[in-house]
Amino acid sequence: MNTIEQIISGTVPNMNSSSQSGGQQQGSGGQSGSQQSGGSQGSSYSSNTTGKQRDQFLCSDILATEKHVSSVYDTCIFEFKDEQIRNALNHIQKEEQQHGKQIYDFMSANGMYS
């Protein structure tokens, strides 16, 4: 979110700074931890319960949103003149794609994706 706020304020974000990559690594570690707990939750989804159906609906909606957001970033990357801004948007798009993969992996592990 800080990257977008910097772009809106007219500042070109520095995507090579150590604080940017350090924050991303820390965020990725937290994501994998939650993904592991999601995997253990999969055993409680052995039957087609209402809870699983709700979770499947929410995950499907979130995954569709991630796909849409990624496609919007894709369009913006091609339309921005400033290469540094394009690089910043490309970085954000890669994060969105990673979020989508994590959602897909959770859904697949829990029999929610067909």
TrEMBL record:
UniProt lists compositionally biased (Low complexity) regions at 33-47
The record's region (Disordered) falls at 1-52
Q: Which Pfam families match?
A: Coat_F
Query: Compositional bias (Polar residues) spans?
Result: 1-16
Q: What is this protein called?
A: Coat F domain-containing protein
